[in-house]
Amino acid sequence: MRTARASTTQTRRLRWIASRAEAALQGRPYIAAEHDQPKMANEAALQTKNHQLRLANTRMRVALAQIAGGSMGILDRDFELAQIAQAALDAEREVRA
Q1: Of 48, 62, 63, 64, which has the highest C-beta tally within 10 A?
Q2: Which domain of life is it from (predicted)?
């Protein structure tokens, strides 16, 4: 803890090390939410969340494509479903742009 705090340049990682060491010296268990995480940990969490969102987005696009391409035998309803699916796909493209 002293070495981390004695550094001439304080980084998030050094503050995290010092915080964990201080908690250990006080006999408290490590709880991640109590300590400012180093940048790499936050980036890894964001990458994981981004991957999960991309998977969900892919599933949604597949479902919308099935709705847009599916036929229910009712011309008005098929047309309405195709419009809804196309509007959702267009909105997704706008968000990405």
Answers
A1: 64
A2: Bacteria
Number of domains making up the chain = 2
| Residues whose CB is less than 8 angstroms from the CB of residue 78 and which lie 6 or more positions away in sequence, other chains included | 70, 71, 72
Instruction: Give me the domain span that covers residue 2.
Output: 1-37
Are the beta carbons of 23 and 35 closer than 8 angstroms?
yes
75 and 60 both lie in a single domain:
yes
Q: What φ, ψ does residue 27 adopt, rounded to 5°?
A: 80, 15
Q: Are residues 15 and 57 in the same domain?
A: no
Q: Read off the tokens for 68.
A: 């847009």
pLDDT per residue as tens digits for the range 65-82: 766 666 555 556 667 777
- pLDDT of 29-46, one tens digit each? 878 777 777 666 667 777
Mark out the alpha helices in the chain (DSSP H runs). Answer: 2-6, 12-25, 39-69, 75-96
Residues 70 and 56: their CA atoms lie apart, in Å, by 21
Pair (49, 5) in one structural domain: no
